[in-house]
Design a protein that fits this description.
The structure holds two protein chains of two kinds. In chain A, 0% of the residues lie in helices and 51% in strands. By secondary structure, chain A is mostly beta strands. In chain A, a hairpin with a 4-residue loop joins β8 and β9. Chain B is 0% helix and 51% strand. By secondary structure, chain B is mostly beta strands. The chains are: A mainly beta, B mainly beta. At the A-B interface, β6, β10 and β11 of A face β4, β5 and β9 of B.
């Protein structure tokens, strides 16, 4: 069965520090992997996605993620966090048609000044 | 963009509710998700060209409709307290595209069942 685990419920980092959010997945076929961000009262915004090819993918707002098949991981990184990055981050896995997507429980990011 | 109405809704257990979504222009696929407080979204179902095209682990009292004019509905009958959640819709292009094309999410409808 497919599933997504985000081990960190809440992370606090100082502004300007680097960030890594962890994501582990379980999926029977070729996974399509996504990271979304959700600000309070907002819908989800796609940060980046991985379908195939280069395992290091670049997204919006300076985020990147690395797909590691051997570790079933798709961790999100940012070299320098800005106060506006404070939000909830969700990792998701799905198939080709987006009709069976599974989301993790999310990681809440707090940014200290 | 994707819009949803109403923004907030309060219903009583046992009642029925209809939530509405207006997809991004030109998108022929809409997916609905339930997001309980403190959890990630859970896939309810997807509609492609007005036909159901996949369903998550939700009972039949959750049903949907998609209309030719880029709008869609989520209907929930016999509401239960556990149905209290944020309901999100997301529209996208042809699901045959790799990854189904990017999904664009609406802001959601907050449903409270008392």
């Amino acid at each position: 069965a497919q599933s997504v685990t985000q081990p960190d419920i809440h992370i606090t980092v100082s502004e300007g520090a680097s960030l890594e959010l962890r994501c582990n997945y379980s999926y029977g076929a070729t996974p399509y992997l996504f990271w979304y961000v959700q600000s309070p009262g907002q819908g989800l915004q796609l940060l980046l996605k991985y379908f195939s090819g280069d395992t290091l993918v670049q997204g919006i707002k300076g985020f990147e993620a690395e797909f590691k098949r051997s570790q079933s991981s798709f961790n999100l990184r940012k070299p320098s966090v800005h106060w506006s990055d404070a939000a909830e981050y969700f990792c998701a896995v799905g198939g080709r048609n987006n009709n069976d997507m599974r989301f993790g429980a999310g990681t809440r990011l707090t940014v200290k000044p | 963009g994707v819009t949803q109405s109403p923004t907030h809704l309060i219903k009583t257990r046992g009642q029925q509710v209809t939530l509405r979504c207006s997809s991004q222009s030109g998108h022929n696929t809409v997916s609905w998700y339930q997001q309980a407080l403190g959890q990630g979204p859970q896939f309810i179902f997807q509609y492609y060209r007005e036909e159901e095209n996949g369903r998550g682990n939700f009972p039949p009292r959750f049903s949907g409709l998609q209309f030719p004019n880029d709008s869609s509905e989520l209907n929930v009958n016999a509401l239960e307290l556990d149905d209290s959640a944020l309901y999100l819709c997301a529209s996208s292009l042809n699901p045959g595209l790799a990854g189904g094309g990017e999904q664009y999410f609406g802001p959601g409808t907050r449903l409270t069942v008392t």
